[in-house]
Each structure stands twice: as C-alpha cells, then as structure tokens.
Amino acid sequence: MSAFVPPVRDMRFAIEEIAGLSDVAAIPGHEDATPDLVGAILDEAGKFAAEVFAPLNRVGDIEGCRIENGLVVTPTGLDAAYRQFVAAGWNGLPFDRALGGQGLPWLVQTAVLELWTAANMAFSLCPLLTQGAVELLTAHGSAEQKRLYLPKLVTGTWTGTMNLTEPHAGSDVGALRTRAERAGDHYRLRGQKIFITWGDHTLTENIVHMVLARVASAPEGIRGVSLFIVPKLLVNPDGSLGPRNDLRAASLEHKMGIHGSPTAVMLYGENEGAVAHLVGEENRGIEYMFTMMNNARLGVGVEGLAIAERAYQQARDYARTRVQGRDIAEPRAGPVAIIRHPDVRRMLMTMKASVEAARLLTYSAAADLDLAGHHPDKAVRARHQARLEVLTPLVKAWCTDIGVEVASLGLQVHGGAGFIEETGAAQHYRDARIAPIYEGTNGIQALDLVRRKLAGDGGAAVRALLAETRAAAAALPADPTVPEAMMAAPVANAVAAAETATDHLVAASARDARAAASGATPYLRLLAITVAGGLMAKAASAARARLEAGAPDAGFYAAKCITARFFAEHILAEAPALALRATASPDGVMALAEEAF
C-alpha cells in the first residue's frame, strides 16, 4: 500500500474558493476560522493522519478485532494512537469551548474528517459516531444528561455509538423488539442489536450507547420508538464511574472490509436489565435519532470521498512506476509507464475528477450546515437549511457510490496486481463498499430525496440549486482556447435534463408513488452530477481568475481547469440518459411477476 499524502492544497482550494470559508468565518463565534488558521490545522491534521493513523491501516486490515476473555481487542497500535488523538484535542474540533471543544466550523471539521478517513477508515468511524452522539445530546438531552455525558464525549474520553438495527428488522426501524420498562427514575432495557460499529473496545474508559427501544403500551411501528442513553459503565451523579451495566458484545461480525473496526452484536439486559435513561419524551426516539443520523449521513459521504482520494493516490503512483507496453503515439520509443496509455489515463482522469467534484459537493454541504445553524439572519438560515436538506442525500449517496467506483477503477489500473492483497488496492475497495449501505442505504436516500425533499416543497429547493448551477455555467469564459470554455454546454444540458426530471417527479409524487420510487435512484445521481458539475464550473472560473492574476502555482490552477472540463465532457454526459431512466414508466421496473425472477 502506498503512503498517504494529505491533499491539503486541494482541500484549501475547495474550502476557500468554492465552499465559502469567508462567509462561514463571518458568523459570530467563527471569526477565528481564517485561511491561515485553517491551513495550519489542515497541515497538522494531515501530518497526524499520515504519520499516526495511516501506518495502522494495513495492520488493522490484517489483524482485525477479536474478543478475548470478554474484552474486545483492537489492532496493534490503535490504543496508543487514540490516546494521542484525544490528547491533541482533535475529537472536540467543532464543539463548544465550554465543554472542552475548540468551537471551529463544521466546514473545517469535515475537511479534517476526510484526512482521518483517508488515512484509516476503520478508525475514523469511532470519532464520527461520537460526534453524532454529541450532536444528539446537545439538541435533545436534558440539562443533567448534558452535564454528565457531553464533556467526556466532546473530548473523546468516552465514545458514543448508535444502536438501531436488529436481526429481523434491518432498515425497518419501526419493527424493532428491544423493550424498555420504567424502573423509578430510569428504565430497564432488554434486547439485541446488530451491526453496532465500535460497539465495544478498550480505547476509552466508557462507551455511551444511544439505543432505540419500545416502552410498554407504545404504538406499533415507528411512532412507538423511544431513545435511551445506555452507558457501558454506569455514571454516578458526580460524574464518576460506577459498576458495569447489564450489556455486552456477544460477538463481532466477520466483514468484507473495515476489519480494524469492531462491529458488534450487542446484548442488553440478560440479567436484571440494562440501566437506561430516556432522552426527551417517550415515542419520539426516531425524531431524536435523526439528529445523529443526519450528522452521520454527511460523515458517511466523507467516507466515500476519502476512500476515493486514497484509492486514486495509490493508482496514480502505481501508474507512474509500472512499466508495461509501448506508447501508442511513439511505438518505437520502447516500454513506458502505463500512465502514458490513453485508457489508463482515462481511468485516472475519471478518478481525479470524481474526487474533486465529490469534495466540492461535500464541503459545500458542510458550509450550509454552519450557515443554517448559526447565521444571525433568519432568512439566510432558512435558505441554507433548505439547500442542506437537498444536499445531504446527494452527499451521502453519490459520494459513497463514487468511493466504490473509484476504488474499483483503482483495482483496474493495477491490473492483476490489484487483485492481490499485498498491494493494498483491494482493501480500499473492500472498505469503501459498506458506505453505500450505512445510515440508510443509497436507495433510501433516493426515496428521501424524491418523496420528502422534492415533494415537500414542490421542488423549490432543487430548482434553486439548479439555478445556481446554470449561473455557474453562464459565468464560464467564452474563449475557446481555454479548456473550461468547453464546459458550458454540458453543464447547461445537464441542468435542462435535471429540470425535466424534477418536474416529472414532482407531478408523479402526487399521483403515483411507484413512478416516483422507481425513478428515484437515477434521479439522485442525475441531480448530484449536475450540481457537482456546477461546482466544478465555479472551480474552473476561480482557477482561471488566479491564472490571469499571475498566481505562482500556475500548474495547480491549470490542472483544475482541465479536470473540470473532463468532468463536464465525460461524467456530465450521463445526464440525458439518467433523465430518461428517472422519468421512465414504472412498468419496466415492476411489471415482471415475482415468480419470474
């Protein structure tokens, strides 16, 4: 596996030129987020990721996790690395300074999370879930719950988990059977949860499980689900730790990838019942859990971006050094590195353009998160919230699909060597494959986009995004001698295709649920590549402005223009076909009798 090189220059370009760091830094409380400070943070985080976590990535893949004498043992070196991570304050980057955090914007946190994930995705899942637990308790916890749990979760002294899935239920959370019975000022919880990421470990002194369960007499289905805090070790009123709670990791899943992350089957209440504390009100658990899930959905989108970056770096490095075949343009010149071959170059360009577009989309959503949550103007908050509602399923679904596609192309660039585990290329693919399943499968994200977001406002937020995209295309230079001038028509065509599909699905949502559902997944991809295409057009315009101003690193900006053109000509070319799929009759999907499969 090649060494991880933090793409800090690309990240700073995305943050400063496209996502709008200046707008985020203008929010009261975020004034310290200057380009110099953010650059310094990314430099240090990149160094930490490359030197501390990246070397453990292959170790974790080979060793995996195991249970010994009732304890979950994680891969060699991870305990010490996590202690360094907490001591350096990285866990608290976006959280309240009063709780031990650093109060920095989510835009900065998102970029830093990309570094952790690219270096070691299995590890990155641990702080990702902890940050989700912090967000959940901040929004919905009682004053006492915040006092007892938030300071330790913010610093990373304790970690958090999300417990939704049960063996019989899968994504149907309303079918869960875990039960909670009132016992004085708390509840006793009994049940089984599966697929619990970082469900048990010895990295920290305590683990705070956020568990969905049903109380007695609760309504059936999702309306009868409540949310509980269930700590591994009970927490005394003074914040000190008490005895072990009635819960355990019964086993660890044997997974395709992310071997360095313990994914547990959790058993609650085998004896007296696990002590559990209700969050908020009974029967509102799924509402509260969505705070954690939406946070995680953006984080999972970062996973797709990060693994794509890592896979691209490895494929690029291999293509530069692997000598095989002759240059098709100069066959008499002798053997050349495979990066000289057009088809390999096509794959690398697809990888590079996809990574850059995914980064722009993800960071833009992170900036919306900051502006929607903290801008002093209510109207501005509302506008960015509407934008964020649409971008969240795009980031989660499209970026995780990109992670898998780019990792697969990385294997192809390696040829037969990519299929051999020793090169490390296969690990990226295996690790990336879980992300389209996490936090609501990508099909669920597409349904959310069409049936909730699109139908909810009649497509107004989507049309506003498409108007931004059209404007970005119109702002491109008309000079045919510059590569980005060739972007205008493909971006405009994609916008037109997305507008047609949007109108169709808004109407279909009102009259035919099957039509909306059968077209949802191609529609999500269509909208994602279109919006990403507009962001790539903005990136090309920003790069051209830097070139015309005589920027010293002209090669960096020229590459941005060329990569943006490739995205428009090769990836946005899918848009008309995706629109046809999104608007096709549902009969093609649903007409075949079940017994004919």
Number of strand elements: 14
Q: Pairing-aware structural class of the strands and helices?
A: alpha+beta
Provide the gyration radius in Å: 24 Å
Separation of termini? 41 Å
User: What summary fits the major beta sheet?
Assistant: 5 strands, mixed, barrel
Helix content: 55-70%
Please count the helical segments: 20
Tell me the β content: 5-15%
- Give the overall silhouette: globular
List the uncertain runs. none
Strand sequence of the main sheet, in spatial order?
Answer: 4-5-12-7-6
What is the averaged pLDDT score?
96
Please give a handful of descriptors for the protein shown:
Butyryl-Coa Dehydrogenase, subunit A, domain 1, single chain, alpha+beta, Butyryl-CoA Dehydrogenase, subunit A, domain 2, about 600 residues, 20 helices
